[in-house]
## 1
Amino acid sequence: MGGIKKREAPAKFEPGFLKNMDRRTEAARLLRERYFDLADDLGGIETLSGIKAGLLEQFVFLEHTLSRFASDMAATEDPAVYAAIQGRWTQAVNAYSGIATKLGLEKVAKEIDLKAYVAGKIG
């Protein structure tokens, strides 16, 4: 059936990783919250194409990965390990920046349904 849900984000990106995480965990809640907050910034989840939704999932994963790399760099005292992590961090920043450019860097206003607004369901 559904299988076992993951408690943490995977080490490597897997499409659908947010759906495969145990929603009861803090990690899943934070990542899903970030995904939907950013989707709102892009005009709402319902306005995203499948491609943009996939890019957004990769963006959230990279954000999480960058945070993990920063923690790993702060925790190590070995210059070689630091340099290796920093190289991976730099590559991830470049990918993150590229996806941000594709998604758009500006907030997009949500379209509001006039009937729902008048009925008091919105705003």
Note: The chain has four helices and no strands.
## 2
Amino acid sequence: VVTPDVGLYHPRHRPARGSRYFSDPREYLRWRSGLADPHGRLADANADPVVALLLYRKHIISELPYVDDLVLALEKAGIAPLPIFINGVEAHVIVRDYLVSRDKSKAGGARSSDTFL
């Protein structure tokens, strides 16, 4: 499996075909809206606070357990994680292109991240 330099990841996204990773926040949030949280409640990226997580691509490739643990713990707390992985030097580009735009509402098409980790 080829891991792109930049993308979005979720531990429960394991498609039978195609990429395991998402290429933009809108695609990820659309997929996530169909998930049930640990309490059986459907995820609602428009109601739940969105927290962008900037992660190192190497940690995704290495399958470090803290990544899955963090994403799932945020969901359990009623938070919509937006886990974006990067090579390390793209953080400013990701914030500019994925999370904010001139109108400050690029993530999810009409929703920006409430905070960054």
Note: The chain has four helices and four strands.
## 3
Amino acid sequence: MDETIISKAANVDAGEARRLRFGFDDRLGTSRTLRGEVAEGRFRVHFPRDMPAEEAKVLALGRTTVQTAGVTTVEFPELALPFVRRALSRLNCKLELTGGNS
């Protein structure tokens, strides 16, 4: 495994810090897997609240059904699945859906 050495500190805005966390997860081989369910032409995904703003825009394609301190659950029409998968792939996240054929 490659070694990551931090040699200096720098100010990083909150949005970039979120993106860096996902990048470090991937580099350490611990990419995130988001889970969800498929039913009746819709699918529901449980998103972490720390998604970077660019990728979080995909949430606007769905309807928030549950929101807690750490997770936002969003229900989407089935047609939004490729867009959600693309946004998550930019963060090296996997999406595991149970219940349908997706």
Note: The longest helix spans residues 14-27.
